[in-house]
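Saturday, quiet lab. Running sequence design on the structure tokens for the scaffold JK sent over.
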């Protein structure tokens, strides 16, 4: 079994308990999370071999993050201990019409201080079949962007498949370059792209197509007030992306219909080498924690495609189901097994006690 390598920043997550305001409670729940780390943990839980690459400070916080990854079976042998600090993010989980909020405190983190030569990518990719990166890491700093570019170049040289989840984060792009300036160069090395329509517009600078006159879709692709999606619109959108980046073998677009903070519709489409596919749609009510939902989708996609690149329709359904289940789990990590995802795919979504 070839391993998947993920590169990014794992942070200390401080969240208000239940659905309280951030400083309403005298206590915050401390866990760890971060885009690529979430993917690595999810892959390990699904039974795949996953390796995580990052930079962490020496001391108990860095030790705790590495211990948390190791606990779930993620290989952390390539994690570096470098000067700097631990990145932190604060989370207030929303409820009903009150949206969730994230506050970052990650300037000067160890990962933000890396550069193009900080990691031995040729050695890291030995025995690897897949490399995963998100648009969060190159947004952290110019040095992290250089390290990301070195990674995708080395992956292609080693014959390793590359997936990129655009994950546009407006709050992070602060070092003088725009997201399209950086991300277009990175995506030119990718085989698989994961995004939503906002990511495509803001991270790649691609103009969104006009919706059809009959569609309820607005210029953003989604009429949130009606919580309805026009999948024909997304077929045209992925065609535009593939025309801009002919290197892309597959483009997956996640579709979130946000009725409220507690209830979302969730589905996805994928344009690949074998056709265009739409997943089933999940009506997710009483959401426990939606953070990491996109990362669990990416992990589900990688889990199947790293075994068989042509199994696109099943990979899409598996990824959507895995992500659906993540919304029921507290924390960043999707702690579900492959058997549980397959059970949901087979129609077992009743939630009845298994004895």
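Result came back. Writing it out in full:
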């Amino acid at each position: 079994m070839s391993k998947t390598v993920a590169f990014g920043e794992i942070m200390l997550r401080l969240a208000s308990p239940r659905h309280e305001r951030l400083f309403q409670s005298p206590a915050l729940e401390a866990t760890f999370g971060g885009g690529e780390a979430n993917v690595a943990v999810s892959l390990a839980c699904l039974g795949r071999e996953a390796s995580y690459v990052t930079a962490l400070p020496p001391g108990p916080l860095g030790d705790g993050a590495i211990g948390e990854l190791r606990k779930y079976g993620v290989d952390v042998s390539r994690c570096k201990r470098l000067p700097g600090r631990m990145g932190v993010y604060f989370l207030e989980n929303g409820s009903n019409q009150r949206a969730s909020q994230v506050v970052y405190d990650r300037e000067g983190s160890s990962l933000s201080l890396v550069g193009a030569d900080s990691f031995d990518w040729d050695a890291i990719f030995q025995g690897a079949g897949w490399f995963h990166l998100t648009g969060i890491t190159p947004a952290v700093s110019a040095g992290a962007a250089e390290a990301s570019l070195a990674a995708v170049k080395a992956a292609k040289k080693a014959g390793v498949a590359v997936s990129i989840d655009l994950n546009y984060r407006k709050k992070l792009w602060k070092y003088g370059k725009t997201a399209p300036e950086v991300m277009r160069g990175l995506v030119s090395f990718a085989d698989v792209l994961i995004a939503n329509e906002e990511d495509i517009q803001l991270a790649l600078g691609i103009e969104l197509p006009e919706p059809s006159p009959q569609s309820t879709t607005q210029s953003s692709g989604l009429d949130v007030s009606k919580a309805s999606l026009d999948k024909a619109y997304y077929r045209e959108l992925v065609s535009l992306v593939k025309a801009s980046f002919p290197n892309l073998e597959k483009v997956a677009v996640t579709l979130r219909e946000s009725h409220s903070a507690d209830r979302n519709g969730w589905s996805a489409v994928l344009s690949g080498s074998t056709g265009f596919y739409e997943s089933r749609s999940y009506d997710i009510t009483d959401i426990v924690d939606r953070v990491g939902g996109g990362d669990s989708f990416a992990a589900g996609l990688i889990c199947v495609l790293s075994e068989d690149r042509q199994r696109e329709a099943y990979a899409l359904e598996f990824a959507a189901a895995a992500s659906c289940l993540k919304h029921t789990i507290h924390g960043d990590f999707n702690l579900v097994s492959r058997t549980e995802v397959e059970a949901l795919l087979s129609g077992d979504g009743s939630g009845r006690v298994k004895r």
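Notes for JK: The chain has one domain: 3-345. The longest helix spans residues 142-157. Ask whether to fix the surface positions before the next round.
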